């Protein structure tokens, strides 16, 4: 399901820069970032990528636009 990833340890860049790098490197047209913390949400917004809140994770986000209760929910989402 995943073809690419990036992490801080590779280039020492913040999360928003890593997200943007993946988007550009793969020429993604409608990317989304799935995360469970406010830092994930803020980083995806800063990178210009839509955010999906993984409510089953560790963090709490108030009034997310889109949320999933489990990973399989991604299959049924429509944008």
Notes on the structure:
This is HAD family hydrolase. InterPro entries: HAD-like_sf, HAD_sf. This protein is an alpha/beta fold. 32% of the residues lie in helices and 14% in strands. The chain has a domain at 30-79. It contains three helices and three strands. It has a three-stranded parallel beta sheet with strand order 1-2-3, with helices on one face.
Short description:
This protein has 79 residues and is an alpha/beta fold.
- Structural class by helix and strand composition: alpha/beta
Shape: globular
The quaternary structure here is single chain
Strand portion: 5-15%
Order the strands across the largest sheet as they lie in space.
Answer: 1-2-3
Order of helices and strands: HHEHEE
Could you tell me the number of beta strands? 3
Total helices: the number is: 3
Mean pLDDT: 94
Sheet having the most strands? 3 strands, parallel
Q: Rg from C-alpha positions?
A: 12 Å
Percent helix range: 25-40%
**Termini separation (Å)?**
19 Å
Low-confidence stretches: none
Annotation keywords:
single chain; 79 residues; alpha/beta; 3 helices; 3 strands; HAD family hydrolase; HAD-like_sf; HAD_sf
């Amino acid at each position: 399901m995943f073809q690419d990833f990036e992490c801080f340890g590779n280039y020492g860049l913040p999360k928003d820069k890593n997200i943007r790098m993946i988007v550009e490197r793969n020429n993604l047209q409608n990317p989304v970032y799935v995360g469970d913390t406010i830092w994930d949400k803020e980083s995806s917004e800063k990178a210009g990528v839509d955010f999906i809140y993984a409510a089953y994770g560790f963090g709490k986000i108030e009034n997310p636009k889109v949320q999933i209760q489990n990973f399989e929910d991604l299959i049924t989402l429509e944008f």
